[in-house]
Amino acid sequence: MTAAVFLDRDGTLIEEVGYLDRRDRMALYPWSIDAVRALNRAGIPVIMVSNQSGIARGFFSEAALGDIHRHLASLLAAGGARLDAYYHCPHHPDGRVAEYTRSCECRKPGGALVERAVRELGVDPRRSFTVGDRWVDVALARTVGARGLLVRTGYGALEEARPPDGLTADAVVDNLIGAVSWILSQ
User: Fold this and answer.
1) In the structure, what pLDDT confidence band is assigned to residue 1 with cuts at 50, 70 and 90?
2) How confident is the model at residue 156 (pLDDT cuts 50, 70, 90)?
3) Which residues are paired to 84 by β-bridges?
4) Distance between alpha carbon 42 and the CA centroid of its chain, in Å?
5) Which domains are present in the chain?
6) CB 157 within 8 A of CB 16
7) 159-182 pLDDT, tens per residue?
8) Is 121 helix (H, G, I), strand (E, B) or coil?
């Protein structure tokens, strides 16, 4: 089993725009391709794990999300980078779409998306890292036994200023390229 990097999407890999419902609203941070490509070259699987409650809330569909992720994959590929898997949680207990309205274990900080990566990709969460712009991404690391990094992009700078009791990041860095540098130095 190998280490992996579990990346949050919005505010970490791409710019935070609220509920991203169309691919034309998506913008990669200028360092994202380089950061992902560096992990690819190091042989570390890069896995996106993202809460997408906009599906449960009726803001966009699974098909729209698939289109956004295909577009993301094409932008990364144009720069010689790739994500090894895309996992998302479409659920939320306050949703309006009945089939997605519930509490679940795949919603971060629940570990079901990481458990799926363990089954499907053979990664070892205890040797892995989570990277995100919210404390829930660091909490996911604690749930699965990984190391958790908080980036200051997206909501990260606001989150850094109000850490929850009893939760600390293994590192707080400016952005994804900073996170990748920290990870590769470990």
Assistant:
1) confident
2) very high
3) none
4) 19
5) 5-184 (3.40.50.1000)
6) no
7) 999 999 999 999 999 999 999 999
8) helix
Q: Please count the CA atoms within 13 angstroms of the CA of 125 that sit on its side-chain side.
A: 19
Q: Give the number of C-alpha atoms closer than 13 A to the C-alpha of residue 36, restricted to the C-beta side.
A: 28
* Alpha-helix residue ranges (DSSP H) falling in 55-134: 62-78, 112-121
CB 131 within 8 A of CB 10: no
Query: pTM to 2 decimals?
Result: 0.97
Cβ atoms < 10 Å from Cβ of 129 = 24
- Interval 44-68: pLDDT, tens: 999 999 999 999 999 999 999 999 9
**Residues labelled as active-site residues:** 8, 10
* Cα–Cα distance, 182 to 149 (Å, whole number): 9
List the beta strands (DSSP E) in the chain: 5-7, 46-51, 85-89, 129-132, 147-151, 171-173
CA distances from 154 to 3, 29, 38, 151, 163 (A): 25, 10, 21, 8, 16
CA dist 134 and 151 (Å) reads 8
Number of residues written out for the chain: 186
- Residue type, position 3, single letter: A
Measured distance CA(148)–CA(6) in Å, rounded: 9
Q: Which residue has the tokens 């941070």?
A: 29
Rounded distance between C-alpha atoms, residue 170 and residue 156, angstroms = 14
